[in-house]
Specification:
The complex is a heterodimer of chains A (392) and B (437). Helices cover 47% and strands 12% of the residues of chain A. Chain A has 392 residues and is α/β, with parallel strands linked by helices. Chain A folds into two domains: 159 residues, Rossmann fold, CATH 3.40.50; 224 residues, 3-Layer(aba) Sandwich (Rossmann fold). The longest helix of chain A has 26 residues. Chain B has 437 residues and is α/β, with parallel strands linked by helices. Chain B has one domain. Chain B is built from 17 helices and eight strands. Chain B has a four-stranded parallel beta sheet with strand order 2-1-3-4, sandwiched between helices. Chain B starts with 18 loop residues before the first helix and ends with a helix. Classes of the chains: A alpha/beta (392), B alpha/beta (437). Chains A and B meet through helix 5, helix 6 and helix 13 of A and helix 7, strand 4, helix 8, helix 15 and helix 16 of B.
Chain lengths: 392, 437
């Protein structure tokens, strides 16, 4: 039987279009997990994360150079082919050198009807968010709160609505419930024997980036009850997985790992719900509360303010989060699948690898991904050998 | 990406037209000598990057060094100063060290070379086993968020390896269509001001020195005058025949890029301006018979600066390179120099549309017939807009382009034969066009 989660996983476009048809609501696409989708949800908009596909590029080869992330290129190609024609707007944060440039290319290449008055678009189709690169320190929160207020104003102007504090607080409550539920799922993944496979946990998370969060919460509650009662356990070498853009293409790696005798029990994969460690703290200013939450999202690109005269003289944020993600999961090995040209992850990798080996005394496997199923399949041999080596 | 490990590039330095350009190397050498002497005397050393406000270092007596500039220097030299072409360049040697440590070969060459040198130094203690005796080791590492993501992660990584205090000056990344935009939004300016103020507190804690706005104003006065002189040079470079080419442009960027805010930097550009002015007055060009004019988009191939003289045999000259050049700043604001810095930097944007429009403007201003797109496969912010620039120049101005693949400093990624074949064909195309115009 196809579950509601699977419907979104197997054909996200059809599922979202069905939602749109049924509700006559607006749908906004977005890149990256730092985007404050909760503001869109508060506006009655369905926020859906933009993902790519394994299709060959058809429209963007003449615009994008080959020396950039193929995942982002694939997202744009789908946009340029009209596959994302159901989107009423797109939110682009500056979360990496290529994503930030989607502000231009999505505007230029994606076909749409543009209505203008006095040369201005009535509803801005692409909204850019200037996400700070430094997520801690003086005035960062003030700056980003102002950026999000501006973002909210653009959405309000574009849709000719007002997003009230009450609506924002209601949306925050839904999102906080989601974070709590996802935390419960994480607790289940700490169990040994393991009651849920890595792939199934990924599907749940992935669906949350495509469907209304309140609906996802309902389904997740039921699923958690069912998983907690499971007697049949999921065998496999317990592994930590890190890498870029784990959408339905790269998620094939979960299956390959499972077929090789492994199980992913914890991860750092740049997905929204990978970052539910902190809730949105209710505040008299909900936009500020959302900004604070968003700044706490752990992105490989972000850096932090360091303090002179103490041990924290250079950034620890990525290692501390990595450590938190591994601790308690009885992980026996770590796999890094870093996509070609994902420089932030590529530069931090040697440091994280050394720390993982030192702190947890587990081996680390590094593989370069190219966002193709063939490329993933070629990793099978390395993964098999890695798991065999750990098993002794 | 294919690495041509066995290829030895027969690179040569560029032929410099200007006397002042030849003096840049002395300027650089003096800085390294002063840096090592200063380090021995206990003066604070910072490692930083191009888009940092250099006046902040100078006003606090901090000696800044730049891993990116050092990597470029490593690209020009072989071990022990050897001229034997079978000896690989120092940049390649250090890039290999980084790659052996699992840094991907697609990462920026500046990062791989400087990080490789750091790893080599930490392993062996032989920091001086490098061109010009290496950089003095830092007391702080200071980067900015602008230009690219790599600079932030790379500097973080070096700070972690060297265990020194780290600071990132976060600059709002503005996206707009025009070339510059005078009015940043207020909260962007406020944020940048707070970042500079935070840096000044950080530098005070690390060095024990006190920030003095009067001293910053002095440095900004020199910067402002330097900026005026450099803009005048850019204006003079529009002349036909071209008085100053890209080889000299890139070679003379060092003082302005890395020592802005000092009198000696100002003196350097005044001398350069006077020399260029004189050449324009006398109608002296880079070559005798200038037949077509080229623009170089992107950063140079530091290991092969002779490429900038390649078209001379066809009567072609590189007249302008948009990289590293100044832009007209807002008026001085002595009552609030920090806010002045913020307003100055926030005039710039980073979007693709911004880059494309800028190229359209420059090609017209400098009477360009063809553009070489330095297709730096490891420098993504530079390479990303290149196809858009290519289409737009062709469509809007009928200007053809040619792309050259390579890295900034790692010559293994540069295929000499392919590049020169392509340039020869491009020269023929431009000669045909030159006849028609």
């Amino acid at each position: 039987m196809t579950t509601e989660f699977e419907k979104y996983v197997t054909d996200r476009h059809a599922a979202v279009k069905e939602w749109k048809e049924k509700t006559q609501g607006k749908v906004f696409g977005y890149f990256c997990c730092v985007v404050p989708d909760v503001i869109l949800f508060a506006a009655g908009v369905l926020p859906v994360r933009i993902y790519g596909s394994t299709d060959k590029f058809q429209k963007v080869d003449g615009h994008l150079v080959p020396y950039g992330c193929r995942y982002v290129g694939s997202c744009l190609d789908l946009g340029a082919r009209g596959v994302y024609d159901y989107l009423d707007g797109v939110v682009v944060p500056n979360t990496c050198d290529l994503i930030a440039r989607m502000e231009y290319w999505w505007r230029e290449l994606v076909p749409r009807e543009k209505s203008t008055l006095a040369g201005m678009e009535l509803c801005p189709y692409v909204v850019y968010i200037n996400y700070p690169m430094k997520t801690t320190g003086p005035k960062v929160l003030d700056f980003y709160t102002r950026e999000l207020q501006y973002f909210k104003q653009q959405v309000e102007r574009g849709l000719r609505i007002e997003i009230t504090d009450e609506q924002l607080n209601q949306a925050i409550a839904v999102y906080n419930e989601h974070f709590d539920l996802m935390n419960q799922l994480e607790e289940l993944r700490k169990r040994d024997p393991l009651p849920i496979s890595g792939k199934e946990a990924w599907e749940i998370e992935y669906a949350s980036t495509l469907m209304p969060m309140d609906k996802h919460n309902e389904l997740l509650k039921k699923r958690l009850n069912e998983v907690a009662k499971r007697n049949n356990t999921t065998p496999g070498m317990r592994l930590y997985l890190a890498g870029s853009a784990f959408d339905q293409v790269n998620a094939r790696l979960y299956e390959i790992i499972e077929e090789c005798g492994g199980q992913v029990v914890a991860e750092d994969i740049s997905c929204a719900s990978s970052y539910f460690e902190s809730n949105i703290e209710l505040d008299s200013d909900p936009v500020r509360a959302i900004a604070k939450y968003s700044l706490a999202v752990d992105c490989p690109r972000s850096t932090e303010t360091c303090l002179v005269g103490c041990s924290h003289i250079h950034p620890q944020n990525r290692w501390q989060k990595t450590k938190q993600r591994i601790e308690g999961y009885r992980v026996r090995g770590a796999i890094y699948q870093i996509m070609n040209y994902c420089e932030c992850r590529a530069i931090e990798y040697p440091h994280l690898r050394d720390n993982i080996q030192r702190e947890f005394n587990i081996p680390v496997l590094h593989m370069e991904g190219d966002y193709t199923l063939e490329g993933l399949e070629q990793m099978r041999g390395s993964i098999e050998a890695f798991i065999e080596m750990i098993g002794g | 990406m294919t690495t041509q490990a066995e290829t030895r590039i027969k690179t040569a330095g560029s032929k410099k037209s200007l006397q002042t350009a030849r003096e840049t190397w002395l300027f650089i050498k003096d800085d390294y000598i002063n840096g090592h002497t200063g380090k021995a005397q206990g003066k604070p050393i910072a490692w930083s990057c191009a888009a940092m406000d250099k006046e902040l270092f100078h006003c606090m007596g901090i000696l800044p060094f730049f891993p990116e500039q050092y990597a470029a220097l490593c690209a020009t030299q072989r071990r022990g100063g050897s001229r034997d072409e079978s000896v690989e360049k120092e940049a390649v040697r250090f890039a290999r060290v980084a790659e052996q440590e699992d840094y991907a070969s697609y990462i920026c060459g500046y990062q791989r070379v400087s990080t490789g040198w750091v790893i080599h130094g930490l392993r062996t203690g032989e920091w001086q086993d490098a061109p010009i005796g290496g950089m003095p080791l830092p007391d702080m590492i200071v980067t900015t968020s602008c230009v690219c993501d790599v600079r932030v992660k790379w500097f973080e990584d070096m700070a972690q390896r060297l265990n020194v205090p780290y600071f990132c000056l976060d600059r709002p990344e503005r996206i707009f269509e025009g070339i510059t935009q005078a009015s940043a939004r207020e909260h962007e300016v406020d944020y940048y001001v707070s970042q500079v103020e935070d840096f000044l507190r950080f530098a005070e804690e690390v060095t024990g020195a006190k920030y003095d706005p009067a001293r910053l104003n002095e440095c900004l006065d020199w910067s402002y005058k330097t900026n005026d002189a450099r803009q005048e040079i850019l204006e003079l470079r529009k002349a036909v025949p071209s008085p100053m080419g890209c080889a000299d442009g890139f070679r003379t960027m060092y003082p302005g890029m890395y020592q802005l805010g000092t009198k000696r930097c100002y003196d350097f550009y005044v001398k350069l301006r006077d020399e260029v002015r004189e050449r324009v007055k006398q109608g002296i060009g880079q070559i005798e018979d200038e037949r077509f004019r080229l623009l170089w988009y992107g950063l140079p191939t530091w290991y092969n600066m002779s490429i900038f003289n390649y078209f001379e045999k066809y009567g072609g000259v590189f007249v302008y390179e948009p990289a590293y050049n100044p832009w007209p700043w807002p008026p001085r604001r002595r009552e609030d120099p920090v806010r002045e810095l913020a307003n100055r930097w926030l005039m710039l944007g980073t979007g693709v549309g911004n880059m494309v429009n800028s190229m359209l403007h420059d090609c017209q201003q400098y009477k360009i017939l063809g553009v070489v797109l330095s297709y730096l496969i490891t420098c993504r912010p530079i390479v990303f807009p290149s196809l858009e620039i290519n289409h737009t120049l062709e469509k809007s101005l009928g200007i053809p382009t040619v792309t050259l693949e390579g890295d900034l400093v790692d010559e293994r990624l540069f295929s000499e034969a392919q590049v020169y074949n392509r340039l020869d064909a491009f020269a023929e195309q431009l000669l045909q066009r030159a006849k028609k115009t």
